[in-house]
Amino acid sequence: MSADHWGIDPKICFLNHGSFGACPLPVLEVQGALRRSMEADPVRFLDGELEGRLDEVRAELGRMVGADPDDLAFVPNATTGVNTVLRSLRFEPQHEILVTDMEYNACRNVADFAVSRARVIAAPVPFPGASPEAARSAILSRVTPRTRLALLSHITSPTGVILPLESLVPELQSRGIDVLVDGAHAPGQVPVDIARLGAAYYTGNCHKWLCSPKGAAFLHVRRDRQANVRPLVISHGANSRRTDRSRFRLEFDWTGTGDPTPYLCVLASIRFMASLMPKGWADVMKRNHELAVEARRILAAALEVPEPCPESMLGSMAALPLPPDLTRAPAPAKGSDPLQERLRVEFNIEVPIFSWPFADRKLIRVSAQFYNRREQYEQLADALRRLRQN
Length: 390
Hints:
Number of strands: 12
Strand order of the largest sheet: 2-8-7-6-5-3-4
Helix content: 25-40%
Low-confidence stretches: none
CATH class of the largest domain: Alpha Beta
CATH superfamily of the largest domain: Type I PLP-dependent aspartate aminotransferase-like (Major domain)
CATH architecture of the largest domain: 3-Layer(aba) Sandwich
Order of helices and strands: EHHHEHEHEHEHEHEEHHHHEHEEEH
Shape: globular
Largest sheet: 7 strands, mixed
């Protein structure tokens, strides 16, 4: 069974790959071997071999996401990538950063912090009722002459919606507005072609849908923007006398001693996931998308709610608004939503419940990864029906 490749507790109906990912056991074995090699001779591994190993992984990752490897830098997570860009740029009081109301909370906080002297403008994207045209119109309607940067999710975290970046990015950049794409959920869910997209900045996680170990992500900075982007930690690369590598490469490839094995395992995870289906990643993404669409159909029937966006806007996640009879208990300031906790404790189902866009409105979001199967969503639908009857 495909689920045997993962170490997820078989007693748990795990439908929340989107939050933190889940790394396959064969990839964790590769990480263990890398760690043993590093600790056998740390100087040889970190001083002598690491640079070449990172080059090899970046080449594979570049092929996966359609990018020149020299324009990619490894970071621990996409939130760090967003921080890196926003804290490198300079904003004046008259400047605005454009986001949507579907932006991931942590990244919205970065924007608020980075432009404390300026303004963050949030475009409300319809949901339910989302469509590519509605999303595009909502975002462009909030552009002003003061807009300096747009921070846009490739796939939104709370609603699992694919935004129409292929039309938005060129339109915004034609108006002199750089785009920072928060692609936390995109690599491995949908095909990513960074060069074709052309955004000034793109950051994505590898530990989510590429199934690398926790702490693996990347930041892509377009070549003409690299001079102004510095890592959050300034280290030896800042005054290196080497001329064989760009300043961008020298600064980002070494920011201090740490465990580089999550980055080094990206190559193994890309290849392992591709090996699961005859046509590789194309089949994996197609299979997961079809399962997410089927899961949404099952849950919409159980909840008696309409599907809130077209199937074309879904990757491997799907969110649905919960009916009022399941949203009475308010979400706590800390910890799981009461409904999420009941599903976990009473039914052994792990699935996230979000308050969005207001505290009294909630969504349920399911993920579809290779270890999931239709019966698990039917189990969730049955649990929700039972809870609605109580």
